[in-house]
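Troubleshooting log. The previous structure file for this entry was overwritten by mistake, so regenerating from the original sequence record. Sequence copied from the archived sheet and checked twice against the printout by T.R.
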Amino acid sequence: MLNFFATLDRRWIFLLMFLAVSMAILGQLKFPEKVSPMVRDVYTTIEELPEGSNVLLAYDYDPASEGELQPMASAFTRHCAKRKHKLYFITLWPQGVPMIQRGVRILDEEFPEYEYGKDYVTLGYRTGQEGVIKLITTDLRSLYANDIAGTSLDDIPMTQDLKNIQKMDLIVNVSAGTPGTKEWVLYAATPFDIKMVAGTTGVGAPVLYPYIPSQLTGLLGAIKAAAEYEQAMAEGYPEYAKNPKMQEAKRRMGPQLVAHVLMLLLIVVGNVIYFGQRGSKVSQ
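Regenerated output below.
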């Protein structure tokens, strides 16, 4: 038996992984999530803001990181809208504009009471990377004379008196790299004492932990934290637990967990085979 598994064509293992993950995807397999303290801090920060607070939603990522970051960006948009906050969308990435449009689509479909110019506005993208942050913290009008559609900020109720982002009550950043969360912390949140939470990729999270909790109130790291945030939303707003659109991260966690468990089992089986064969050779 050990010899059979030791000589098994590896393509059978690939097929087994394919079938396991496919079944999890097709079956929309989900597992219970326990909200970690850091994710709870992010949720509480947005939840406890007074209704109608000004929130800057900075979505600095592109389609390459959409699978990992879009669920948390969607959850942030829904949570802020649920709390009736005033939303200002912005991105430091040229490919980030379609990511913002996904958030706007959520508002249009799920929050029909939200009116453009009164409840949310899309500032869009300006070139300059972290230089954009340095400018808009003191003089936003020097870089943004109009919104993404070309409408003058003077003609939009939300931006008529907007001179800089120092009046923001919270910065929410979703980042896939540079420029992103680190730059928002260094050039906006810290020097101007603006409260900030963020979500980032798994590889980008560790370098941001030193900023928590003084400069960064909380952080969502990768799809696991996004799933926990969805769980926190479901606990706070029970109607979210029944809506599949609001469980995207949980749905993506199912196949990932199945794949990880299968990998661990294969490692165990591989070690059993190895030590079994070595024991046979020693006894001979």
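DSSP finds nine helices and six strands in the chain. Archived copy saved in two places this time.
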